[in-house]
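Q: I have 232 residues here and want to know how they pack in 3D. Can you give me a structure?
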Amino acid sequence: MNGANKRFMSGKTVWLQSHLIVYNVARGTMGDPFGQGLGTVGAELQTYDFDLRKIGGIQLSNGNAGEEFELRGLTDVNPNTTRNVTGSTRAIVAYFLPWGGQKTYCGKLGNNAKYFFTPTLNGCTFTYSDNGPNPSVAHSNFVDLNSQQADQTAMDNDLNNKFGGQAPANKIVKTDYKRVPTGGEDYRATVIGIRTGNSWDFYYQNYKVENQDLGTQGVVTLRTGLNLCVPI
């Protein structure tokens, strides 16, 4: 919508530096919208058609203005952002790795797409095996049931198991993108993979989320882009 798909695919990392991509896992089964299941590190993921739908403008930590987009399936219907799919629509064909609580989802990438997405990290760990043509990827989320905090030990143990004894060193964990919050702040990350030729590179977008009460306008969610193109 608004040509965002085309601009993302042509600009890639340059575009990411001033454009935040968010993914709403709170909508129904959006953690695993395609019913893919847990997968394995040796099985190639399926590809799907995606769409970037503009939410609005955001503030960047350097003082500049940026834009915010929601990642959706191309044919997803929403009362405010229904996509009018035509013959000129440029879908983003991408691999997708699901998310779920107390689980680790795994898969492998190939040459059937040039892009990769996975749901927002909010305490989760993401890891990948290498930058070659067929890297294995994993998204792990475990929470300590007593403290309700991210359980990094459980994630590390399950990732080691999924990768046959030792998980890759290439990863992003909670402490990479979380900061000590002030008030109602929270910190999250969006992971994006981009293939160039036979090489895959992975990046994360670090951003702050805070809810503000604007009186008659109600409570609104504001996001600030901190660093929107960090290599993993």
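Q: Anything worth noting?
A: The radius of gyration is 17 Å. The first strand starts at residue 19 and ends at 22.
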